Amino acid sequence: MSKLKLSLSKLPKPVKIAMWVLLAILAYALPLLEPPFITTPGVDFGGVLFVVTMYMLVALGLNIVVGYAGLLDLGYVGFYAVGAYTAAILTSFHANWPLLFALPIAVLASTISGVLLGAPTLRVRGDYLAIVTLGFGEIIRLVAVNTEWLGERKGISNVARPPSVGGTEGLFEIPHLYWGDGTVLIDTQDTTKFLVFGVLDQIPYYWLGLTVVIIMLFADYLIKNSRVGRAWEATREDEDAAELMGVPTFRFKLLAFATGAFIGGLAGALYASRQNFINPDSFLLLFSILFLAAVVVGGQGNRWGVLVGATLVAYLPQRFREFDDFRVLVFGLALVALAILRPEGLFPPRRTVRAKQLEQELEELEVGTDGEEKAHA
Amino acid sequence: MPDTPILEVDQLTLRFGGLTALDNVSFDIKEGEILGLIGPNGAGKTTCFNAITGVYKPTSGTIRFNGESLAGKKRFEITQAGIARTFQNIRLFPTMTALENVLVGADAQHTTGMFSALFRLPKHRREEAAGHDRAMELLRFMGLAKQADELAANLSYGDQRRLEIARAMATQPKLICLDEPAAGFNPQEKRILMDLIRKVRDRGFTVLLIEHDMRLVMGVTDRIVVLEFGKKIAEGAPAEIRDNPAVIAAYLGVEEEDAS
């Protein structure tokens, strides 16, 4: 794994960029290619991929809070809910805004809720923060259940969809592939209209989600490699030492919380828009745990790791629906196995990778000196 | 050497419940000097450090830095104002590289926020370049340039101690407080460290040094303050301290027992 990474990092820059572009094209084309084994039998592949991108988005946001700043947040679904409900209220329940106007407000609302929750609670540490955030997630849901203005248990329907480009027929149609027995055909009957956000074809939502994920990846990279990212990491490693080195830790923790809430709210609003309908059951505690699982499974602190984690958590249960009854059991077993075999996650950040490399180098050195000694003897 | 005090500790008292850790301690540090703070275990040296750097709030008494009281200032504000420190037990950021550790220190004087970072504004680029230059320069000064990309956790013990000093210097302090920087060193390493501390002073820093090893403190400091059971029992040039009967009785006696 680390060898692969090393040889990749040695490639010249244009080659690297070309590889990334190719990877991105492949990612965009994935639902059109409908590759066998990967497609989900019985469920709409595009829809599953959209959910995967939402988990990715949420995992990236939660990774900032948990992975970078080291704040255990067990109520992340609360921000997701604030974003979703704000979008739903503004586009359907109490107003008739287009989604594009509602999105910034939804994101703003969840960011503010992050600041409001963080300002008093980020002064406590560790377990206490986990408990407070756990309560926050549940409170948001219970408020939604009990408030008529928020649709109570019935929820809110007719949430606005993103605006389609080129009317109901789109600009052009893109055919899908059809995988027969040993043959691959272009299926002109099965097409996706570019770019229509409709009811049946969910692929445009996936493209939207994927685009947002890519933007967030860039943003994540830019922030991580700056004073802000270093301050988060220093705070996570040793809060007191960081403070004594001139890091206003509280301010940076609040910033991490607000950033996480921003991304969570965005994901919630997009989810509400695609789903067209939300009710409090979309925001159960279970989702907070799944989001956290995505971050932890992938390897908290590593943006690519959490993307893989999000993919596993969102995709595997859909791919293997035939084992539906055992889904939670298998998931639990997988988590236990992971905790034992790879406690740092599947793709831990470079710290562990680097430490291992060093270990190996030391071993090689030791072997080398042993050899010399033997030669001398 | 100018005689203006950079730090004035005035009748500093610190109580934890019934325990008086510091009792009416007063001393000055003059700009450009190396002041030794010594005393047997539990004398209150580190407590004094913690009071100066804002970790503990004084029960009574004042600490003035550059003529300005530090009361009510937060820890990071005190660092930004120009007091940096190292720790008795090494407290680096283990999963960050040596360079990143020093960069965190350098960031103390920076103000780049989320927005500047996100859009790579000139401010971000300027501060990032300046911080990087300063950090690399300090690593070279400490002889750690080769290990710049090594994780702090993977550095040798001595390198970690030196990295802590580099990180503290990166915050551009006027006063740098070293809490037993030679702890765990052999005599040879201690000598090298003492030279280093002198070099730190020659770069314009004022140094407050806590140290256990008497010989070492005598060799490097300009003046020494001796604490015992939270009280100041002596103050003066190293030669005076060496001959002070109270110090010999209180400190050296205990030191011998410690050594056995």
TrEMBL record, chain B:
Keywords: ATP-binding, Nucleotide-binding, Transport. GO terms for molecular function: ATP binding; ATP hydrolysis activity; L-isoleucine transmembrane transporter activity; L-phenylalanine transmembrane transporter activity; L-valine transmembrane transporter activity. Residues 7-254 form the ABC transporter domain. Pfam families: ABC_tran (PF00005), BCA_ABC_TP_C (PF12399). One of its GO terms (biological process) is D-alanine transmembrane transport. GO terms for cellular component: plasma membrane. It comes from the Bacteria. This is ABC transporter ATP-binding protein. It comes from Nocardioides ganghwensis.
